[in-house]
Amino acid sequence: MLFLAVFCGFLAENIREHQLEKEKGKQYIQSLYEDLKTDTTRLGLLINSDKDKIAGLSNMIACYDTVTKNLRSTACMGLLIKHSKTNAAFQLTDRTLRQLANAGGFRLLGKEDADSILGYESSYRRYQNFESTVFQTAQDNVRNTLNELADFRVNAPVQNFTTALGGDTASGKLQGPLLFTDDRVLLNKWFNELALYLRVTNGQQNILSGLKDKATGLILYYKKRHNLP
């Protein structure tokens, strides 16, 4: 009788622990579900920002023709600077992923759920690698060459280095001729780097769009599989 009582107590404890783990697994899924919603909102904003950037750089060839004909006719370069001076990188909402990794929570999830999470994180790592290497290199090249070309007093307001010098940072309007040097080789280099920057921005937009599609797909998957609101 004593053995039976101990055995039944052991079974009850195992059942209770299993139920607790199952409930904890559901909480992880719910938390990840909310994280994915946050990610899709952020990704949407960044994708739209890249679309604006691509549109703003679309007059690059016409601007090149204008400036090379007259080195003081640099007004069109203001818009190109505006759309190539900064980049906002996407940061994964990883509160749940960190909890899963640090607390060994993946063992509480079904294989399909765990694999879907790891697949999404892997896609983010690929984006992160692209942004920190290929994209950032293109961004730095454009900035560095512009710094050699541009008159500080004209460039600074557009770059928002200082507000004391005036200038229209929102529209990219230049307050006078931009070029500090008449080095056409350097000018040509900047436009070549800008063309590469545009191609890389297109690539980044495609990667972000793919990541957003993946996040949206996971939201629908979890919603259906776990009856989430």
Describe what this molecule looks like in 3D.
The protein is mainly α. The protein has one domain. The protein contains 7 helices and no strands. Helix 1 runs antiparallel to helix 4 and helix 5 (111-149) packs antiparallel against helix 7. The radius of gyration is 26 Å and the shape is elongated. Mean pLDDT is 85; it is low at 161-169.
The main sheet comes to: none
Which spans have pLDDT < 50 for at least 5 consecutive residues?
161-169
Helix content: over 70%
Q: What proportion strand?
A: under 5%
Overall number of domains? 1
Helix/strand order: HHHHHHH
Shape verdict: elongated
Q: Which class of secondary structure composition applies to the elements? A: mainly alpha
Span of the ends, CA to CA: 48 Å
Radius of gyration from CA coordinates: 26 Å
Write the layout of secondary structure elements.
Layout: H1 2-56, H2 60-69, H3 77-82, H4 95-102, H5 111-149, H6 152-159, H7 184-226
Question: Could you provide a short overview of the structure?
Answer:
The protein is mostly helical and 229 residues long. Helix content is 74%, strand content 0%. Helix 1 packs antiparallel against helix 4 and helix 1 packs antiparallel against helix 7.
List keywords for this structure.
229 residues, mainly alpha, 0% strand
